[in-house]
């Protein structure tokens, strides 16, 4: 069995698709297959696909019902033990990235590395969780970046495919269930893997993202846990805002020190 299936979904993003395909085609590893699921593009994406057809294990171009419908189509065609979703516009940083990630892989359900993106004109390396155990609280707050993750294909058979009723956060829901609630083993490698295209739908439609996350949390987490996490998150926001007000935070810290000293004096009496 091949170790990895790299799956790219695309719709009318020929320039981004070309960057993605070229980065995959340049990989030194031979232990992966490459699948492209195109949503019936009309912008020249098919020319890119046909140009690289010899390097593809499978491709199709037809209308679909959204991002996660396209991803699920890719999973059903995949033959690798793990799946990586490298959508058009994102690209692998160096030709040896896949080879390094696959070398002596640990026993795990999900393996992930680092993503690179540009923020305010600066190149930022993002090392999510940096190898520590990922908790349910972590996933309540954030996620595992999709393009840097090798996800065991059997997880989709065990827990179900991506929820196609969601437009943005179905991959996060999948992590919430598999890692957060069922403690599937996650491993990390400190390898800069993927350049992240910040023009993707999840980066732009922030309001839809928040709406879908709220809906998923209400349906997925037990009510007592959700209530505790919401309270915890609210307290975190308050503390963050207090820290931004330096004078206010200075006064609170000094009040805490005074109360702590008074408590120590009382304990000596």
UniProtKB/TrEMBL annotation:
Q: Which keywords appear in this protein's UniProt record, sorted alphabetically?
A: Transferase
Answer yes or no on keyword Ribonucleoprotein.
Answer: no
Gene Ontology molecular function terms on file:
hexosyltransferase activity
Q: Which InterPro entries match?
A: Glyco_trans_2-like, Nucleotide-diphossugar_trans
Residue span(s) of domain Glycosyltransferase 2-like: 5-128
Q: Which CDD domains match?
A: GT_2_WfgS_like
Keyword Zinc annotated:
no
Name used for this protein in its record: Glycosyltransferase
Say which species the protein is native to. Answer: Spirosoma aureum
